[in-house]
Amino acid sequence: MTELVLATRNQDKLREMKILLKGLPLRIFSLSSFKGIPDVKENGRTLEANAKKKALYTSRALKKLCVADDSGLEVKVLDAKPGVYSARFSGKGATYKSNNEKLLSLLRNIPPSKRKAQFRCVIAIADKGRLIGIVEGKCKGRITCKSIGKSGFGYDPIFMPDGYKRTFAQIGLRKKNRISHRKKALVQAKKILKRYVLMLRQPSSGRQG
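The chain above was modelled as a monomer; its predicted structure follows.
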């Protein structure tokens, strides 16, 4: 069975991705399964640049098929910030809580009608240092006025998706995985992976008989 490495050590993200990739003929690992693989410095100016960099580096280092993602929350009134800086929005040593608190502070005087936002996820797929594909998914919604809910991670307690009256942190992982940015990106990535794995299993033209 073909091995696939998810280029992350984030256990929350890993759990979501494993659920959404279920059903593929792949043995799935994370970076935590391998020793001596340093974290890739996510210094790209876009989500696309970071996802591509992580996928190419990890697939080259491990000589395996690899999926890497970079996700960000884009708030319209803040000119799409925090965006690519979502994970470290509140500075060095940022935590989920400190990031949420900073964002809520910046939006303190902004009315509900102007708190529109979207989560965006970009996924890159690479094999042994060769880029196979890159896709993205979006989930539109708005930022709440306070943190609500205890499930999920990141900005989930302050993001209310369109069509819902509850935050990602309130609706739970199962419902979140039906509508999330990561789900939409992984649906596309799953199609690419399925085609690619089938291609790998085809006998080469040089092997007849």
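The beta strands are 2-6, 26-30, 65-75, 81-82, 116-127, 130-143, 159-161.
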